[in-house]
Recover the amino acids of this structure.
């Protein structure tokens, strides 16, 4: 439940510096913090948790208006190495309203000490971002990735799976003087329609991304939304997305994701959903096919639809495959690295408004380490996949978040 209390807040700092010092407050005391900018929004928001232990929840979040307010950060596959997180909102700061801060009852009780800690931070305090305790994942070479694609195509041809999404990690050195918050700003400026985020938590590390894919949303209008996003091609200079022509392979790949979502509705015996598309959408310099699904929660007797759908959807066939378990088994056996939080999901729940949840698939993201970034990208395979083309597609997708490493 969003029972946050609004307090006037006028530290002698510019708004961006207030945000920076709140991040410093979290990191210097070993606490988790999340920053995000919603698609189309002009300002970033911040959630800081004082209750570190409470953040390791082990379950997907509940999306009802009465559920706790916070920020979800969920891995591709729940494991001891990659625990699901839900950062309880103890301090909430919105750059659109820099003269106020919202606090939970826990934070309200500790306000004098928090104020003191905040004031004691040096100007431009250093930001000791959390680093994952896991080793850096293996990065596949082009021949290795193409061999993985070939194995995937063979699994599809033999009927083991219908579709599988293979992926890889890439290690890139950080440019000298790399500043995470400046990179966060740059991602916001480059990708106004993406969900842009930085999440940093003990045991999890620091993740930065700009994703185009909604996993599950419950809007202020009382509508549940999700989408089937798949199929990829470059946005060519001088062309509009609506001019894109799609091959049969991409059309089928995306149709499978749409069918997966319809199957989730069917499992809940819900028929009253609206389906729009597919149509072509741009995500930075790439184009995708997208079908939107919407359910008006005020018109159906499904009080927990958001929560139920979230639990059925993740991981969707846009990041796993179909049938789901067979595709996940294929990935675990053949992919050769730990996806960790890549292709998991993230986003605010009841924060700041009760009854509004916005969860996105963690794509076009990177994990930060002290001197390098680990970037991630995947491609949906069908029986017609060409290994060299799939490699090129990962290269294209890597450019989205890779743009901040130049
Ligand atoms: C798995 C990724 O993208 C998914 C979302 C859109 C298009 C996709 C595709 O064309 O393969 C993927 O399913 C990724 O960006 O790493």
């Amino acid at each position: 439940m969003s029972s946050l209390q609004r307090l006037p807040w006028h530290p002698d700092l510019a708004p961006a510096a207030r945000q920076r010092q709140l991040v410093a407050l979290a990191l210097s005391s070993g606490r988790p913090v999340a920053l995000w900018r919603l698609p189309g929004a002009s300002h970033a928001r911040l959630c800081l948790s004082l209750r570190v232990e409470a953040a390791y929840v082990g379950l997907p979040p509940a999306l009802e208006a009465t559920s706790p307010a916070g920020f979800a950060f969920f891995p591709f596959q729940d494991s001891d190495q990659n625990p699901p997180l839900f950062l309880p909102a103890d301090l909430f700061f919105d750059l659109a309203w820099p003269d106020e801060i919202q606090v939970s009852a826990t934070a309200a009780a500790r306000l004098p000490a928090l104020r003191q800690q905040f004031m004691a931070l040096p100007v431009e305090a250093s930001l000791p971002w959390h680093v994952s305790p896991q080793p850096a994942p293996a990065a596949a070479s082009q021949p290795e990735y193409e061999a993985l694609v070939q194995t995937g195509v063979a699994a599809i041809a033999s009927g083991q799976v219908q579709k599988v999404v293979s992926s890889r990690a890439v290690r890139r050195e950080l440019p000298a003087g790399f500043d995470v918050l400046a990179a966060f700003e740059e991602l916001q400026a480059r990708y106004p329609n993406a969900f842009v985020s930085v999440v940093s938590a003990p045991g999890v590390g620091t993740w930065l991304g700009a994703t185009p894919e909604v996993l599950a949303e419950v809007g202020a209008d009382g509508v549940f939304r999700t989408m089937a996003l798949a199929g990829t091609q470059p946005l060519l200079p001088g062309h509009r997305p609506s001019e894109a022509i799609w091959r049969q392979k991409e059309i089928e790949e995306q149709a499978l994701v749409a069918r997966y979502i319809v199957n989730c509705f069917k499992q809940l015996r819900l028929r009253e959903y609206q389906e729009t598309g597919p149509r072509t959408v741009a995500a930075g310099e790439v184009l995708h096919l997208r079908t939107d699904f919407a359910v008006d929660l005020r018109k159906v007797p499904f009080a927990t639809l958001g929560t139920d759908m979230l639990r059925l959807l993740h991981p969707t066939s846009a990041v796993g495959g179909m049938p789901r378990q067979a595709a996940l088994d294929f990935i675990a056996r053949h992919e050769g690295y730990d996806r960790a939080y890549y292709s998991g999901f993230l986003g605010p729940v009841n924060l700041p408004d009760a009854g509004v949840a916005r969860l996105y698939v963690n794509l076009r993201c990177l994990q930060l380490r002290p001197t390098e970034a680990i970037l991630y990208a995947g491609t949906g395979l069908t029986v017609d996949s060409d290994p060299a083309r799939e490699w090129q597609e990962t290269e294209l997708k890597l450019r989205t978040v890779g743009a901040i490493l130049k």
Observations:
- The longest strand covers residues 223-234.
- The longest helix spans residues 248-267.
- The domain at 142-405 is CATH 3.60.120.10 (Anthranilate synthase).
- The pocket of ISC is lined by residues 165, 167, 213, 229-232, 288, 318-319, 363-364, 377-380, 397 (CB under 6 Å).
